[in-house]
């Protein structure tokens, strides 16, 4: 349900309630006409205030939506830049770690070969 529907429902409900109360109250014709004129003036003021408040609310929501969109775009850009910078800074570390892993694999391979040779010599 959107704000326009709610506002319209409140407005119609208020006018209907006021009209019902005025019409059903036991008064003379002159008093009734006076009350209707008085209440219609009050209703007019209330309607103007509601219209102003609804317009103000609508504009605030539009501004908030625009600002939120801008902030999200900026945040997205900042995050992408941060990740790109981090990846760039980590490249030398990645290369160093790959080299160390290759060295470790070579060392393990050499140890396995030496162990096999020693085992063969000892068994002979």
From TrEMBL:
Coiled coil: none annotated. It comes from the Bacteria. Residues 115-124 have a biased composition (Basic residues). Signal peptide: none annotated. Keywords: Membrane, Transmembrane, Transmembrane helix. The keyword Transferase does not apply. Residues 92-114 have a biased composition (Basic and acidic residues). It holds the Pfam family YtxH. InterPro entries: Desiccation-related_membrane, YtxH. The chain crosses the membrane at residues 6-25. Residues 88-124 are annotated as: Disordered. This is General stress protein. It comes from Listeria cornellensis FSL F6-0969. The lineage of its organism: Bacteria, Bacillati, Bacillota, Bacilli, Bacillales.
